[in-house]
Specification:
alpha/beta; 9-stranded mixed sheet; 11 helices; 9 strands; 44% helix; 17% strand
């Protein structure tokens, strides 16, 4: 893209990037945005959240070199939600048609990423969101498959139901381009949610469909730093996600109530069984009485065979072991 275009034309798209302590990565992230080849002008809003390393200095240096494209917003103290709010306000007030989300520790590897995604959105007005596949650069040496970070999708058109019912995040922030149709200001609970990306995808797919590009356009870094990898977030992620879903169900005036209840029920089942895995005796019994009400609450028609199975798993696991060993013995006896 010719940066001189910004002097004469209204930007069609804004790149939204939050960054915190990404000093090792942020220059590559910025360079991969500047390398994008588009037929339209775009602006690049960077939210720097009072990093303790050299992230801010790097971002401000790029702003000084590309002032017609890059605008850096700096928080006075570390505040993730304030940082995000600054960027949302900038995007809303810029008048752009599209927003591309980004994080300062990732980078784009397809120089036509923005062009491909905007072209699709221009040709398909019924879609409000598009996102792509990704590669993973694991800085921790886990060498996990890509599906560990983003599930394999067997379809390329998704609705809000897909996002509500999925137990894995179907998108990664840095893969997304969407229409500038998010509410401004955002819902009150936006300021307290841990899962801002989930909230955004829900708000968008309430207004239209989502398109998945199978091409790997982004590299997602997995490393010890990052914005969301705090101990609290890791330990309380599911609880906070369910809180967000309840808020969204109410925000949507219960138009998707049946779908949300189905998700709540599946979550209740998982909590009931797997939440008790490391608990024994009275601790397990207490866990049972704390979790069984949600299972009953969201079960329109209680499956008593299923409920019996869960009770055996929780309180009589020896019965399952005997049953399984008997089945193995019988299969050997009859040649199965």
């Amino acid at each position: 893209m010719n940066s001189d275009d910004h002097l004469y034309k209204q930007p069609l798209l804004a790149v939204y990037m939050c960054t915190y302590n990404h000093g090792l990565f942020v220059a590559k992230a910025i360079e991969s945005v500047l390398a994008q080849k588009t037929t339209f002008p775009f602006v690049y809003f960077i939210g720097e959240d009072c990093s303790t390393d050299n992230t801010r200095a790097i971002c401000l240096d790029y702003q000084s070199r590309y002032p017609e494209i890059i605008k850096v917003f700096c928080t006075k103290e570390n505040n993730m939600m304030q940082n995000a709010t600054n960027l949302w306000n900038a995007c809303a007030e810029s008048g752009v048609k599209y927003i591309a989300m980004y994080e300062g520790d990732d980078f784009w590897i397809d120089e036509y990423k923005l062009q491909k995604q905007v072209d699709f959105m221009e040709e398909n007005p019924e879609f409000t969101l598009c996102f792509s596949n990704l590669e993973v650069k694991d800085e921790l040496g886990h060498n996990r498959k890509v599906e560990k970070y983003m599930p394999h999708l067997n379809k390329d058109v998704l609705t809000i139901e897909d996002f509500i019912l999925s137990f894995a995040s179907l998108t990664r922030t840095s893969t997304m381009v969407f229409r500038n149709v998010l509410p401004h200001p955002m819902p009150d609970f936006y300021m307290t949610t841990m899962s801002g990306d989930v909230l955004i995808t829900m708000l968008l797919t309430d207004k239209g469909k989502a398109k998945y590009f199978k091409e790997q356009m982004v590299v997602y870094r997995n490393h010890r730093g990052g914005i969301t990898k705090t101990q609290y977030n890791v330990q309380n992620g599911n609880k906070e996600l369910m809180k967000l879903y309840h808020n969204l169900n109410k925000y949507f005036d219960y138009r998707y109530d049946k779908i949300f209840k189905k998700r709540f029920l599946e979550n209740a089942k998982i909590n009931l069984v797997y939440g008790a895995k490391k608990k024994k005796g009275l601790s397990r019994l207490k866990h049972y009485f704390n979790t069984i009400p949600n299972y009953i609450k969201y079960s329109d028609n209680i499956n008593y065979k299923e409920l019996l199975y869960y009770h055996i798993v929780l309180f009589c696991p020896i019965v399952l072991k005997l049953f399984k060993s008997t089945m193995i013995h019988d299969s050997d006896e009859y040649g199965y």
